[in-house]
Structures are given as C-alpha cells and as structure tokens.
User: Fold this.
Amino acid sequence: MRVFTWLPLSSPGLSLVDFETQTHRSSMAPYHIRKYQESDRTWVLGLLSQGMAEHAPHTFRHLLKLRRTLALLLGGPLALFLVSGSWLLVLVASLTLLIAVRLLAQYPWSQFVANSLYTDMRDISKSYFSEPGACFWVAECEGQVVGMVGALPAEEPTLQKEQLQMLHLNVALEHRRRGIAKALVRTVLQFAAHQGYREVVLTTSMLQYAALALYQRLGFQITRQYFFSKSWVLIAVPQFQLTYSSSGSQPF
Assistant:
C-alpha cells in the first residue's frame, strides 16, 4: 500500500525545494524526486529512448487494423500471384510488406527521439536551468533514475509568462504503478503555481492510453487535436494537447 502526503502550496513550512526532494514510500523501495544533475544524463537519455521504443508495437498493431494497410497486405500479394503465379513471391512480398509496416510504425517515435536530442535534450542543463521559469526533475530509486519530467515556458512569446509546457514525462517500465508518474506531474503543477503560471500544457498521442488517462484524472482537459507531422498523418495517429488551468475546477 502506497502512503503519500501531498501538502497544498500554501501549507506552512513547505518550500519548493522541500517538495522537489521529498521521499515517497511504497510497498517497494522508496523513491524521491529531485532536480536533474549532469550525472543523470545517461539514465535520462536511456529513459527517453526506451519510452519511445515501447510505443512502436502498439503503433504496429494500430496500423494493421487500418483498412488501407489491410488492402495493401492482402491486395498486393494477391495481385502479384495473379501476375506471376508464384506462391514463393507472394510469401516474400507479404513478409517485405510486414517489415515495411513495422519500420513505419517505429519511425515517428525514433524521429521524436532524434529531434529531442537535437533540441532541448541536447544540453539539458542549458535548456532547463539557464533561465527562470523552467526546470527538469528526475525520480530516483536506490541510486538509479527511474523517472523524469521537464517543464519549459511556452514557445509563443505572448504566452511565455502564462503557460508552462510539461515535457518528457517517463517512468521506467519496472517501476510503474507506484505513483511515480503522478508524483512527477504534481511536481510540475506545484512548480507552475510557485512560478505564477496560469496553465500547464502538454502533448500526448492517441495511442498513449495510460498517459492520457492519468492526465485526465489529474484534471487536464483535451483542448486541441492535430497531427504533428506528415509521418503521423501517414500512420493515422493524432496528437492531443491537454491543458490544466488554475482557473478551472481543480486549481493549482
């Protein structure tokens, strides 16, 4: 049984530092949330890569259910058989198409990692600690980084003082279902309140079911649906922007 004590921001004696480093105990080993350090970089990048790679099998299954994919997988080999009469060619073609669909399912996630490594995750300390209003946290358990989350001001200049972006929420597979993701999200919400932001926004995909459910339980609402790029259109996986507002039913 997990035992957490969450104190409101206005509670006497609770500073932001206290919140960021508090320890959480569960039926397994305790973990604590703290600010990112450069020594965490290898762990954090590993979590990023592993977390995105997890979505490829779900995306593959999603693609196999699409009518256009089924038409390609069935119609292509059938047309080849009618032309060649060779079952061997049909088998080779079918396997080739399946491999192509599998690679297509993996591509957007690997592209996301590559883009992150080229932008904010290239130099985490510089991206998240060079200016006020941004931060990056990790969840540590028994000397290992098992979770992470970042927060940056909105990219649009007019919203930078009002809107905080939550990025890269991820928890190692073997440490899930312990409340770590929820604790990391609440860390961001507390930070947003402390910094005077009015909203926290994030983006997740249609296929990230557990993450989407978690955000909605914590008070986030879907405010936008869109496709991040052409590759996402190709695999028919839209992204959702979710917003947590201090003026909503669940204030910071």
About this structure: Residues 176 and 185 are 14 Å apart (CA to CA). The first helix runs from residue 16 to 21. The beta strands are 23-24, 31-35, 135-141, 144-153, 163-171, 199-205, 221-226, 239-245.
